[in-house]
């Protein structure tokens, strides 16, 4: 399965200077627009092209991969603005491309809102006023409607336009007429993206480019590279990642015919399973209703009173229909009956929300009222054995079915099929069906485990896998599934694979669909009753709603019909015709040469892929050797690159990237995707890349996560793209020579970005300018050896908790240079440099906020750059995606005239503004400044600069919290300006 070596470059191949030219991605990149595109793709959720194949953590957006590949292939010219225009045309991110992608009409309300900002003559063409004076759209012809759509669409900000557009991957690429301009600029003859890739690759390498990804994960890089017309080689140490990537290339990338074959195979198996389940009679009740969801809870005995207590954080089942569970004491058996009530009052809903028996990891007993830590409750927890499918009678935690949601189906008088949901407590007949499920599973259990239809693998201890062992005593992966889940999932695989009648694509599709279903149907699948997340009818969450194996006290189980969407996947088909090879392999051992390596390596244990993926591998391991005889079926934990041992981690990364560098031509390139904003981590990375024989030539930051994905915690939202080439300069620098070179490079980088930026549609955000300092530092630090720094020694060195290596010091210095260089708009550069670091941090933070930036990491990085150690004193809010600094009124008297910021001129200005607002009189602020500042006349011009800057916040529409303070600053500034000796 190893591909042939790359063809030798032909004599008529590239122009002599081609390989020496910087590529587009090394000189500029439209990061703001790409961030908006990545956000749109991420926001598509399950409808993203590859996410439907199965769960994987950290898949990069396809639009980002496409942009990186084109950026690597496109040469630069003497006209950088034209280079950007052509790149945007290829990405269909230019005006014509966006209009071509537009597939939704802008609604009438939005059209009218935008018309109100247009000249009256234009407005009257399309709208008219009614008797009440309200504007309404006229009756328009088709041509007029399209003209209006085009007019309004052209005026929208880029991110707003995307609301009405398909994603770039969903169309064929630039329109036919765009290729004339593209070819004229590039000197090519292409009429499609694959043709262009073929032509540019032949010009540069003498053949079609091969793209490699040695940490392929969910397959975004190889899939998009192959779809663009590159040959691809994909590998990953983890066989689950390799399987997902293989499916991306051969099922989704196999064309619509292959995708349809897989769909038909899944549907055929599902029908057979549904018939068997129906014949067993384990999902229908006596009234003919079919089960739609089963709700289970755990039970534990209260250590104080001995009562058996059902455990749940609350007892709301469905908000929309006001369905609750209520606990009724059973004195005779020292336990609780659970009654289900529909359509209850608001008071009973409120009581059900408050009646949870597990709060803050403590068991709250409704009988005796005593709270007991759950660690005490589970003190005598038994470790389950392989044959355990349900708790034993004397186990600490029992399991109880307490509610079933049924669907009643009937035909109305018009012959239409109707359905109605019912929420019911289980009857004795329902419990008999539960017992039958367990009996059916026990009959097949050992055979199915031996054949891999259900998991048989033990759970290996680990940072994440310890959780189910510690909290429930579950020691095998099948313990994470109820008997009903094991029976349905196992029956699906047994039906599909008993006779091995399906080909490789259908077999892999069936296997992945069971993995997909397992994620949405396990004992880790939380029941969600609220309207915001389930529509209020109640839904079952995926097991991996975050990057952990969380055990819940109550959870939901999907019966067969609701599992249909998981077991019968509807994958799109794209025809990929280039060479594609996928193999599970350690990055440090692979032997394939690639023109470009594009990798997103695991870093600092951000995600424990090797542990979490074993949840799926438990279902796949017996089938992988049959489907792929050359593959292994082990997660290879011992070989995984992990951050718990910093020295071993750095050494493993060096081995991996040195190997990739050795398997790349001299004019090849690498892009390393990176998601950290810590100078120490960047220092490590610079040493790793240097030791691997690479030099950084550019770095860009793309926002790759949605707000929804980041709703908890101050997570990094951007992906840094480090563009690297082989290092060829071996002449050493001395450490004292590095600092001035780095300062020069930082300033050059920032000035270049500012010159390329577009005020109305900016390519770069504040975070991009911050990260540019890191990139500039890495370019200098990795370009050639530094006499006073031995990368190999630094990589092996164990550092103390507060010990910085010399590279980290240099990188922090680069950030400081950037912060000093980037003077906020409206401030005088000379006076800016005379401000205290805390003043500069506060003013720059206001500018960042005015740009709509609320990520905590951006403000944290600013504080580092300015040396604002205690920057949290400035923050009004530090929640993720809500971070901002205090207004003058929010500061009030806090810290006034205290050491540090309290004694600065800016602090006096903020207090003056606060007084003006408080007294509703600007003279109160003016009098304070004139009487309290002994050097008032000396600092008058600086006062005006600061007051004018704060007053300018009146113009920022989204900073409404500054409105009163900014107006007060404007009036105080007027008084100061008119004050004369």
UniProtKB/TrEMBL annotation:
Top-level taxonomic group: Bacteria
SUPFAM superfamilies: S-adenosyl-L-methionine-dependent methyltransferases
Matching Pfam families: DUF1156
Domain spans labelled DUF1156: 28-89
InterPro entries: Antiphage_assoc (IPR049953), DUF1156 (IPR009537), SAM-dependent_MTases_sf (IPR029063)
Name the record gives this protein: DUF1156 domain-containing protein
């Amino acid at each position: 399965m190893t591909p042939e070596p790359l063809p030798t470059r032909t004599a008529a191949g590239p122009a002599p200077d081609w390989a020496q030219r910087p590529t587009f991605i090394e000189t500029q990149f439209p990061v703001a627009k790409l961030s908006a595109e990545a956000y749109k793709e991420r926001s598509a959720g399950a409808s993203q092209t590859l996410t439907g194949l199965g769960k994987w953590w950290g898949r990069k957006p396809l639009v980002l991969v496409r942009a990186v590949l084109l950026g690597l292939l496109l040469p630069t010219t003497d006209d950088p603005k034209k280079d950007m225009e052509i790149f945007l045309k290829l990405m269909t991110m230019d005006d014509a491309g966006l209009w071509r992608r537009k597939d939704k009409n802008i609604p009438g309300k939005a059209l009218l809102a935008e018309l109100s900002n247009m000249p009256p003559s234009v407005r009257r063409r399309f709208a008219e006023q009614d008797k009440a004076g309200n504007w309404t759209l006229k009756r328009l012809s088709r041509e007029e409607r399209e003209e209006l759509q085009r007019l309004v669409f052209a005026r929208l900000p880029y991110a707003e336009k995307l609301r009405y557009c398909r994603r770039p991957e969903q169309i064929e690429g630039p329109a036919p007429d765009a290729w004339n301009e593209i070819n004229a600029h590039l000197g090519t003859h292409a009429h499609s993206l694959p043709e262009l890739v073929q032509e540019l690759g032949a010009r540069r390498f003498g053949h079609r480019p091969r793209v490699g990804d040695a940490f392929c994960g969910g397959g975004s890089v190889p899939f998009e590279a192959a779809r663009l017309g590159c040959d691809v080689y994909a590998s990953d140490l983890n066989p689950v990642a390799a399987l997902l990537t293989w499916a991306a290339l051969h099922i989704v990338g196999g064309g619509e015919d292959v995708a349809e074959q897989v769909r038909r195979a899944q549907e055929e198996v599902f029908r057979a399973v549904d018939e068997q389940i129906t014949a067993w009679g384990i999902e229908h009740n006596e009234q003919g209703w079919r089960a739609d969801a089963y709700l289970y809870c755990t039970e534990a005995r209260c250590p104080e009173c001995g009562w058996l207590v059902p455990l749940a954080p609350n007892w709301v089942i469905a908000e929309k229909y006001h369905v609750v569970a209520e606990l009724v004491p059973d004195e005779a058996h020292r336990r609780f009956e659970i009654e289900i009530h529909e359509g209850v009052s608001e008071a009973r809903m409120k009581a059900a929300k408050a009646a949870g028996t597990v709060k803050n990891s403590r068991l709250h007993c409704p009988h005796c009222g005593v709270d007991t830590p759950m660690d005490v409750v589970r003190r005598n927890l038994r470790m389950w054995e392989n044959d355990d499918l349900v708790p034993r009678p004397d186990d600490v935690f029992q399991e109880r079915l307490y509610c079933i949601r049924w669907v009643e189906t009937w035909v109305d008088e018009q012959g239409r099929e109707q359905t109605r949901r019912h929420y019911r407590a289980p009857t004795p007949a329902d419990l008999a069906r539960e017992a039958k499920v367990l009996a059916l599973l026990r009959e097949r259990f050992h055979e199915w485990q031996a054949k891999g239809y259900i998991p048989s693998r033990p759970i290996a201890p680990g940072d994440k896998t310890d959780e189910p062992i510690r909290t429930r005593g579950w020691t095998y992966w099948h313990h994470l599934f109820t008997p009903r889940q094991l029976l349905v999932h196992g029956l699906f695989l047994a039906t599909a694979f008993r006779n091995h009648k399906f080909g490789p694509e259908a077999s892999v599709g069936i296997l992945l669909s069971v993995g997909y279903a397992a994620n949405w149907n396990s004992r880790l699948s939380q029941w969600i009753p609220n309207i915001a997340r389930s529509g209020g009818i109640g839904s079952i969450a995926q097991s991996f709603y975050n990057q952990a194996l969380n055990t819940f006290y109550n959870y939901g189980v999907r019966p067969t019909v609701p599992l249909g969407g998981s077991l019968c996947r509807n994958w799109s088909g794209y025809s990929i015709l280039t060479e594609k090879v996928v193999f599970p392999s350690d990055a440090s051992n692979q032997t394939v040469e690639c023109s470009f390596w594009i990798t997103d390596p695991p870093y600092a244990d951000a995600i424990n892929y090797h542990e979490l993926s074993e949840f799926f591998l438990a279902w796949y391991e017996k089938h992988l050797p049959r489907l792929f005889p050359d593959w292994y079926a082990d997660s290879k934990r011992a070989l995984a690159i992990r951050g718990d041992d910093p020295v071993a981690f750095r050494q493993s990364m060096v081995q991996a990237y040195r190997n990739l560098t050795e398997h790349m031509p001299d004019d090849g390139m690498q892009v390393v995707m990176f998601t950290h904003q810590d100078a120490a981590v960047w220092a490590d990375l610079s040493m790793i890349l240097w030791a691997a024989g690479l030099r950084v030539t550019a770095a860009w930051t793309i926002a790759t996560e949605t707000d929804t994905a980041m709703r908890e915690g101050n997570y990094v939202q951007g992906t840094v793209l480090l563009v690297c080439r082989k290092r060829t300069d071996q002449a050493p620098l001395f450490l004292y020579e590095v600092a001035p070179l780095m300062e020069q490079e930082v300033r050059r980088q920032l000035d270049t970005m500012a010159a390329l930026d577009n005020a109305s549609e900016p390519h770069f955000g504040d975070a991009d300018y911050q990260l540019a300092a890191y990139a500039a530092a890495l370019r200098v630090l990795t370009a050639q050896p530094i006499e006073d720094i031995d990368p190999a020694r630094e990589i092996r060195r164990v550092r103390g908790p507060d010990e910085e290596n010399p590279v980290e010091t240099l990188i922090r210095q680069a950030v400081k240079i950037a912060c000093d260089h980037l003077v906020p708009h409206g401030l005088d550069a000379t006076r800016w440099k005379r401000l205290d670091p805390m003043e500069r941090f506060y003013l720059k933070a206001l500018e960042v906020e005015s740009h709509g930036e609320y990520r905590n990491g951006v403000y944290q990085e600013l504080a580092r750059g300015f040396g604002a150690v205690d920057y949290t004193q400035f923050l009004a809010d530090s929640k993720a995606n809500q971070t901002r600094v205090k207004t003058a009124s929010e500061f009030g008297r806090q810290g006034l005239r205290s050491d540090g910021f309290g004694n600065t001129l800016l602090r006096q200005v903020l207090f003056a503004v606060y007084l003006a607002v408080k007294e509703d009189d600007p003279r109160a602020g003016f009098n304070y400044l004139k009487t309290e500042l002994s050097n008032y006349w000396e600092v008058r011009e600086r006062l005006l600069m600061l007051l004018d800057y704060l007053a300018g916040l009146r113009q920022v529409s989204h900073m409404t919290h500054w409105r009163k303070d900014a107006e007060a600053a404007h009036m105080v500034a007027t008084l100061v300006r008119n004050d004369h000796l």
